[in-house]
Amino acid sequence: EAGVAQSPRYKIIEKRQSVAFWCNPISGHATLYWYQQILGQGPKLLIQFQNNGVVDDSQLPKDRFSAERLKGVDSTLKIQPAKLEDSAVYLCASSQIQGSNYGYTFGSGTRLTVV
Amino acid sequence: AQRVTQPEKLLSVFKGAPVELKCNYSYSGSPELFWYVQYSRQRLQLLLRHISRESIKGFTADLNKGETSFHLKKPFAQEEDSAMYYCALKAGGNKLVFGAGTILRVKS
Hints:
The complex is a heterodimer. Chain A is mainly β.
């Protein structure tokens, strides 16, 4: 089975610029997650989708971050405007169904550096 | 509050020595715990789940609700076990809460 695809792998931008990340989950996985992993910390959930609906976005900084999952498949995460503290690896993950006892499948991540 | 604590940032052992990576959690509901591993230049991947009580690559982990712990153990470390290990708790809505991770370094 193909894994979770993310692009780009790396991105360097200046503060106050905007950036977008893309994720294509495993086929048939209804639940999609975006995590932020700051250096030295564990991944932190930003937003969770069930099909194309948002289940949890309580930790998403909504003044600058936005995400969508049109048609319940691919997803994009956007930051506008970026701040220095947004430098992190952004991980996308998917799982078969909400409430599954199985773990997620993660993508390789996008490493964002804000200078 | 949902929280996962991994007290050691780095654990260094010699090849063949026993390994125990500590994980403690805080959760008011019935916990589901996982261990994830990230090898160098690879993506984060599931190692094992407490609910399956399985042994993967020689690693086991037992959920101790009394001590709110889910320590990862292996009797004899191998060099290929060197990696970053994350303990994770499934909280409400299938959300995973991760600890900060422990780097395991196995020396020859």
